[in-house]
Amino acid sequence: MTQSIVRVHLAFPCPFPAFSHWLTLEELRTFERITAPQRRHDWLAGRRAAKELIRCYLLETVGLELPPSQIRILNDAHGAPYADLPSWPPSLKGRGSSPPRVGEGLGERFCISIAHSAGHGLAGLAPHGSIGVDLQRIRPVRSDLAERVLTDHERTQFVHYFVKRESEGLLVFWALKEAAIKAQRTRPAPALREIAVRLTEPGHAEISLRTQRLKAQWGQWGEFIWAWAFF
């Protein structure tokens, strides 16, 4: 689930007491405001995936081992996540990465996206460009989902690639389109049938969304379909 310009990380469910030290005080307050147990599990899994991914990326690229509690995951005006990190340490300038701009924080050097499903979290990171990720637990889907998701051309691909795997196939197209919407990071979001997906080689796709052309990958991990889209 990695690629040269895109990195993704899948997090397993984790009980809150074992994970609370990873959160900032602001994130702890946010968590306490979430009352539904499933939403709590999902929120924690998404944050865990994002922080693990960011920590690995910073360690690999600039040699910085940053504690999770110093990584704040916030949301912009459109609801898209971004990382608020400490300013670039002077001692790291020039180590394994291009020199930072004056006043630049570490979090300004990459784009992140978060998804969660059934207590599992998925995060994506792209050093350049914009990324979106989605995660769907494989399950029976409503009979009208194909009408809401698939274009006529996509129906042809669906029939060809997903014989006797209708639920998985619909979730693949759905996840790819949701990932593309997240990558675009604008509102209002387009209807799913306004997004055109073309499956190419196995596990790869090209997506057209308004004026954007996105590269995408997808796959199955256990009982989940994962997808990312990037431009």
Automatic annotation (TrEMBL):
Question: Its domain of life?
Answer: Bacteria
| Keyword terms of this UniProt record | Transferase
Q: Which residues form the 4'-phosphopantetheinyl transferase domain?
A: 130-221
Q: SUPFAM superfamilies given for it? A: 4'-phosphopantetheinyl transferase (SSF56214)
- A GO molecular-function annotation: holo-[acyl-carrier-protein] synthase activity
A Pfam family in this protein? ACPS
For this entry, the protein name equals: 4'-phosphopantetheinyl transferase domain-containing protein
